[in-house]
Amino acid sequence: MRPITLEITGFHSFRQKQVIKFDHLLADGLFGIFGPTGSGKSSILDAITLALYGNVHRTGYGIQGIMNKQETNASVVFTFEIGNGAERQRYTAERHFVRKKEETQVRRLRLTHHTPECDVVLAEKKGEVDQAIQNIIGLTLQDFRHAVMLPQGRFADFLALTGSQRGEVLQRLFGLQQYGEQLDRKLKKRMDAIGIEQAELSGGLAQLDQFNDEALERCKRDLDEATAARTAAQQAWALQRSGRRRRRVADPS
To answer: 58 near 67, Cβ under 8 Å?
Structure first.
């Protein structure tokens, strides 16, 4: 994700509208955000997180914790690009809030896709905007906090994740889910095939357990009896045919 511009109004020390143009800063590649304690460095990162995901966890009070106490309205508008080369796409996520008494409410929100032809509003409802952002970026809020906007002093949280949890975060971060899903499907298909083969072998083994010496002797006796019965039937059939031929010779009419 490449940040383009960020507009902040009514959050922490940013009471009046402030616009940060990241595209100018990115012209030289790498840049840093510097300033004394309380100057608003973390508020910039909070505003980006809030614009994208509609929530901030750093303060422990969500939106209430970062909204300026002297303001009743606040807004954050974040324009960013994602993708490489010809596939790079530009979006703007904006969220506007109003404080009524002691409660902060969402007044308006919107996700816009900027194309060379026109601007397309993708969503204006919270659930739809949140889902669309997650689909575009490919990260949940938890993933974003762990891998992109890691709060100060919380790097150990990422290291403390279990191997499977870190694997899931990195899969989503680098877009590797499809390979993991393909591998899961192949493994499941192979396991199912092995399960069927195992069941067939177990059934065959159960049948073999029934064949002991006594059963073998019984099968031999049954075979001898069947052979004798077949021989007797063949002889009776031969005698019957011979009798019919003799009757036809004795009675030429």
So the answer is: no
- Helix then strand count (H, E) for the chain reads 9, 6
Where do we find the tokens 């009514």? 10
Q: What is the pLDDT of residues 20-38, one digit of tens each?
A: 998 888 877 777 888 777 7
Structure token pair of residue 207? 């049948």
Q: How many other CB atoms sit within 10 Å of the CB of residue 149?
A: 19
At 47, list the tokens: 């505003």
| CA distance between the termini of the chain | 108
Q: Which amino acid is at 58?
A: R
DSSP 77-112: EEEEEESSGGG-EEEEEEEEEEEETTEEEEEEEEEE
Residues of the chain with pLDDT under 70: 57-62, 146-147, 149-161, 163, 166, 168-180, 204-212, 241-253
Q: In Å, what is the CA distance from 238 to each residue of 208, 231, 233, 243?
A: 40, 11, 9, 9
Coil, strand or helix at 11: strand
CB distance 70 to 79 below 8 Å: no
d(CA 41, CA 22): 14
| This model's pTM is above 0.90 | no
